[in-house]
Amino acid sequence: MFECVFSGGIIRKALDKGLLEVNVHNLRDFASGKHKQVDDRPFGGWEGMVLKPEPVFKAVEKIRQDEKAPVYLLSPQGERFDSRMAGGLAQLPQVILICGRYEGVDERVIEHLITGEISIGDYVLAGGEPAAVVIVDAVSRFVPQVVGKPESVFHDSFFDGLLDFPQYTRPREFRGMKVPQILFSGDHKQIERWRRKKALEKTWLLRPDLLAERKLSLEEKELLEQIQKERKE
Ligand code: ADE
Question: Does residue 85 surpass a pLDDT of 90?
Fold first, then answer.
């Protein structure tokens, strides 16, 4: 699962250049006994299997290079992953992600080993692996030099709490659909203002929750009032 994602695209390039390192470990390598069992039946009786504490503790103890490196369990109970969290994790020398599996993880891992739990959304995945892939992808974009144009990371949706403004490329007219005239004006200040207005409009229409959380500048307040007036007309 990890190989197919990390063997292409900007992550592959970043790995080749040594801008970041991703190490995937198999919990089975840290399990004891003849069968290298990583899970077992829950005490008290219940359905399914629970991930044993021993392989998880042993794995973390072995791979942790820095005592302060945070250890996150990927689970639907965790704090919701977002762009701000991605930017924060990108600053750290090492982050350890544990992919939860089966029906659950022994509570001693949660109480005594991990720094916290991270969820990528309100749905239950069969395992934490796809969540780990999502997190590595989003975090690596904040690692310096991974993305060709560093400014683009900071202009992306969510970075400043707004959705992206619309983008256009050639041709200027396609099946009668025209590119907005302002983009050919050469007036960068006006283009910037138009883009901010469009980003605000999109966010207001599609993700009003993001606007509620964000402090608007004076110019943005003005633009939003304009949008609301125009939409009423
Ligand atoms: N494991 C199972 N579901 C998950 C989710 N929504 N986020 C992160 N890890 C998970």
Answer: yes
Q: Give the C-alpha separation, 71 to 152, whole Å.
A: 29
84 part of the active site: no
Question: Could you give the residue ranges of the DSSP H alpha helices within the chain?
Answer: 2-6, 9-17, 53-63, 83-89, 107-112, 129-140, 150-155, 188-206, 208-213, 218-232
- Cβ of 20 below 6 Å from ligand 1: no
In angstroms, rounded to a whole number, what is the distance separating the alpha carbons of residues 124 and 202? 29
Q: Locate 176 and state its tokens.
A: 């009668």
C-alpha 196/C-alpha 34 separation (Å) is: 62
Identify whether the C-beta of residue 203 lies closer than 8 Å to the C-beta of residue 210. Answer: yes
- 66 pLDDT above the threshold of 80: yes
Q: How far is the CA of 26 from the centre of ligand 1 (A)?
A: 18
Between the two ends of the chain, the Cα-to-Cα distance in Å is: 51
**Cα(190)–Cα(11) distance, integer angstroms:** 35
Partnered with residue 71 across adjacent β-strands are: 96
Check if the beta carbon of residue 90 is closer than 8 Å to that of residue 105: no
pLDDT by residue (tens digit) across 154-188? 777 777 899 999 999 999 999 999 999 999 999 99
